[in-house]
Amino acid sequence: MKFEIQGKDPNSKARAATISTAHGEIQTPIFMPVGTVASVKSVHQRELKEDIKAQIILGNTYHLYLRPGIGILNQAGGLHKFMNWDRPILTDSGGFQVYSLSDRRKVTEEGVRFKSHIDGSYHMFTPEYSMEIQRNIGADIIMAFDELTGIPAEYKDAKRAMHVTHRWLERCRTWLNENPSLYGYEQTLYPIVQGNSFHDLRKESAEFVANFGADGNAIGGLSVGEPEEVMYEITDLVTDILPQDKPRYLMGVGTPWNILECIALGVDQFDCVMPTRNARNGMLFTWNGVMNMKNAKWKDDFSPLDESGKSYVDSYYSKAYVRHLFVAEEYLGKQIASVHNLAFYLDLVQTARKHILDGDFTEWKNRILPQLKQRL
Hints:
With 376 residues, this protein is an alpha/beta fold. It has helices at 45-52, 61-66, 70-76, 79-83, 95-100, 127-137, 155-178, 199-212, 228-241, 256-264, 274-280, 312-316, 319-327, 331-358, 361-373, and strands at residues 2-8, 15-21, 24-28, 30-32, 57-59, 89-91, 105-107, 112-115, 122-125, 141-143, 188-190, 192-193, 217-219, 248-250, 269-271, 283-286, 289-292.
């Protein structure tokens, strides 16, 4: 994997760059749609490529391990071929999903034993097994197996989890070095900075990760319910320490305004279920603000869904029609809203990239943020 910076904003840490992988180039800053079980919910791969213009998507190690299983993915030749997606893929390590199974898991130095949310069967994830699963999935970018703690947390618990994460990172690298690639191309391992909301722990973890020498790095354990100001503080602290010449990925973030603020703090890659999850509940993000499509105010509004939207659905359907679909609980409404939101998120980061290259990103961001947040 290669990372080349094309431009920097003079008034923030924002930068525009290109990540080159075996399955194509990624223009950053970038938003990566979440394809949990080899599918971005409600969206066809053709729409992802041609309308949403996704450059990279995510797969989920925990869910793909349970269904369809690594045997099927290996027989298919990896996730790219299984789901017919020829652009880059990133997989998480399963760490966050295991964390979310708080009443179904037990963490030890060896790894995490957990119960499947599907049938209650017991499984064990270790750093080595997470790497083996991700090797079989075949993603271009793979994440180190980590342990995170919710915010707030006890200092001693956050410190213990951080040190476990560092030890597990070494085990991930050892396994990868001892086992050849499967599908004829290399995979890039991203370590994950942990440390909860404690500045000294985040600093220690960021320095450990920076010295690890990986080709890209991630910031984990945020966007788990903490105030936005805490997210920004920690992100700012960590991006000051992580290498300037490597991509930085902030995991699980967030709203359009979160993304713009964190681009300003030096983050290059983002993912979040918000655009699709909120879409399924009728919430649309637009350049003019946030729309709740279930509101009666749209009942007889026959104007285009979003006059400034870049997706075909924005001009193809009216607000009144999409509102009707949600009131009628018709699945098409969720599909239309998902395509719209993802296309908007991709448009958001590509517009941010343009302003970084033009040198006026900070001025543009500060002007657009109040508009994005308003409720229509």
